[in-house]
Write a structure and sequence with these properties.
Largest sheet: 2 strands, antiparallel
Distance between the termini: 66 Å
Order of helices and strands: HEEHEEHHH
Radius of gyration: 19 Å
Bound molecules: heme C
């Protein structure tokens, strides 16, 4: 009996743990990375699943990349890690810092494909660029 109770609990815990990332990612509408201890801007708009569907991004590694020897490794992705696991807020010389990582990835693509917001306020809605002198 006890054994059965335990195995039910284990199964329930696994289902629950699996659901957390799926739930969060589907539910994500904005991004405020907690690695920035004193955020200067309001959260960036990013409805993870809806955004990727509209933009036609099926390859997770477009954003969740893996690098080796200065190059992106094809066929591998890192959605089980946070950007901040690999990009420090204060990076070593030659490494991409966290803020730059977001801006290069997000704004970089928007500029390239000429779609999606490229102004500060377009992504940080209440952080009007003009009002802070940028
Ligand atoms: C346009 C870029 C982009 C694409 C494409 C993308 N993601 Fe993400 N995803 C992000 C960003 C940014 C985060 C937040 C990362 C962080 O907090 O460090 C994130 C977070 C996640 C998380 C963690 C959720 C949480 O709340 O911690 C999961 C899981 C995830 N993505 C899965 C996927 C999967 C699976 C795919 C492919 C089907 C995918 N992502 C495609 C940008 C993207
Ligand atoms: C598993 C580790 C890892 C994760 C997770 C990761 N990156 Fe990277 N990323 C790297 C490495 C390594 C490089 C190359 C060295 C560098 O520029 O710091 C890189 C480079 C970059 C670059 C520079 C690309 C260029 O061509 O100059 C951007 C932008 C970037 N990452 C954004 C992100 C974003 C945004 C996330 C989260 C969605 C993320 N990365 C998640 C490891 C990672
Ligand atoms: C590989 C290209 C690509 C990357 C990377 C990318 N985007 Fe986009 N984004 C698009 C495209 C394309 C659109 C226009 C989609 C449409 O409305 O049809 C868009 C639209 C948007 C919009 C407008 C509202 C919406 O959801 O359509 C916001 C906000 C946005 N992107 C934020 C972000 C953020 C934040 C990131 C980085 C975490 C990011 N994007 C990364 C291609 C990209
Ligand atoms: C395409 C969307 C996009 C655009 C355009 C953009 N950002 Fe961001 N920015 C992000 C994302 C995503 C993050 C990481 C999530 C977060 O914590 O806000 C970020 C983070 C930041 C951060 C670090 C976190 C904080 O609040 O201190 C600053 C500062 C910032 N952005 C300022 C700017 C400024 C200034 C501009 C205009 C020059 C700008 N951003 C344009 C998407 C964008």
């Amino acid at each position: 009996m006890l054994k059965r109770v335990i195995s039910v609990a284990v199964v329930a815990a696994c289902v629950f743990l699996y659901m957390i990332p799926a739930f969060c990612q589907e539910d994500m509408t904005v991004l405020l990375d907690p690695a920035f201890k004193h955020p200067q801007r309001p959260a960036a708009l990013f409805a993870h699943d809806a955004h990727n569907e509209k933009a036609g991004l099926d390859d997770c590694a477009t954003c969740h990349h893996v690098w080796e020897d200065g190059k992106i490794v094809e066929g591998q992705s890192s959605e089980d890690q946070k950007c901040s696991d690999c990009h420090a807020v204060k990076p070593e010389a030659g490494k991409t810092g966290l803020r730059n990582a977001y801006h290069k990835l997000c704004t970089g693509c928007h500029v390239k494909v000429e779609e999606g917001p490229v102004s500060c306020a377009g992504c940080h809605p209440k952080g009007d660029a003009a009002s802070t002198g940028h």
